[in-house]
């Protein structure tokens, strides 16, 4: 297992200067800062053959994320499984889910592992189930929270 950490010293956040053509699986731990989405999108753009993505959410909610609907090759052709861990159901997370469902043409499985204290899970699940999907084969899986979910386990 390799760990890759990005330090944003460039003025334009979200710019990742490399290509990861052989990357098939990626695990991210992300804060809820406003610069995170451009960074995730840049990383996906640099990973054209990515098949599995795990995102572990950390931190508090921030300003609303705005995600463009531009095409990303790995979402169109390769990304089959996405696992979202420590989901609180806030608007930014739902915006990311909307983006993945809309653009994940070959997506087969999108799973959610909740934070322990999320009280309105049924309402959030209902909202997610109503989102449009580009893949007719995608299965949505909603898992009970696991005590002491820790990023290093993934």
From TrEMBL:
Domain annotation FBD: ranges: 73-143
A Pfam entry, by short name: FBD
Protein name (record): FBD domain-containing protein
Organism: Citrus clementina
Source species taxonomy: Eukaryota, Viridiplantae, Streptophyta, Embryophyta, Tracheophyta
